[in-house]
Specification:
With 218 residues, this protein is an all-beta fold. 2% of the residues lie in helices and 44% in strands. Strand 3 and strand 4 (50-54) form a beta hairpin.
Length: 218
């Protein structure tokens, strides 16, 4: 060590192939990375006494954060960094970040639906062309046994709180087609619209389930 006021020198022993050095001017501590013995030497600048701190293999760099009084030693052979607390020269193990508890996925449920049928965008007569019934998690669309049969059955827009399954069917069928659905969030209402169409007539079928009424707290 060199005294900058008069260039006199003092030798501080205890290192083994000192490789890097850093100074904390706030605490007057000097930190030396010793490549050979896998330790860092802490020198007290007031009296040149030393303390050694075990670090990783072949430490080859050292840096000081004077604000937090933390010292960071790079370990060349273990590919990691040792953090030294300047308060007491310990190397505390970092507290792992807790894994957040995943929110449970709501179990899809069915609900007893009710429907409102209105005329579609083709020739008048769509309402009487289709028989519609509904129940717990399903809607049945049944074309009357005349005309061109059921040509298409589609969702209109995005369903609200509903996962809707329209099964495959033979174009022009007169057989009932059963559309099923589940309610992902059992606390919310369900609302979606189907459009059933033959060649000349169409009907819009709005399907809804109301949100459950909360149970009063005793």
């Amino acid at each position: 060590m060199i005294d900058g006021t008069n260039n006199s020198t003092t030798t501080v022993t205890g290192s083994s192939q000192p490789f890097a050095i850093a100074v904390n001017a706030v605490t007057n501590k000097i930190y030396v990375a010793n490549f050979n013995n896998n330790k860092a030497t802490v020198i007290d600048g007031t009296n040149n006494t030393t303390t050694t701190v075990a670090v990783g293999r072949n430490p080859n760099a050292v840096a000081v954060n004077a604000v937090t009084n933390k010292i960071y030693v790079s370990n060349g052979s273990t590919n990691n960094v040792t953090v030294i607390s300047g308060d007491d020269n310990t190397t505390p193990t970092p507290t792992p970040t807790p894994t957040p508890t995943p929110m449970p996925t709501p179990t899809p449920q069915t609900c007893t639906s009710f429907t409102t049928v209105t005329e579609g965008d083709l020739f008048p007569g769509g309402i009487v062309s289709f028989g519609v019934s509904s129940g717990s998690g399903f809607v049945t669309v049944d074309h009357v046994n005349a005309g061109t049969g059921l040509q298409s059955l589609t969702l209109v827009g995005a369903p609200i709180n509903a996962t809707v399954n329209i099964p495959a069917f033979t174009t022009g069928t007169y057989n009932p087609v059963v559309v099923t659905f589940t309610r992902p969030n059992s606390a919310l209402a369900v609302d979606f619209t189907l459009q059933a169409a033959s060649t000349f007539h169409a009907a819009n079928i709005r399907v809804r389930c109301l949100a459950p009424t909360p149970t009063p707290t005793p």
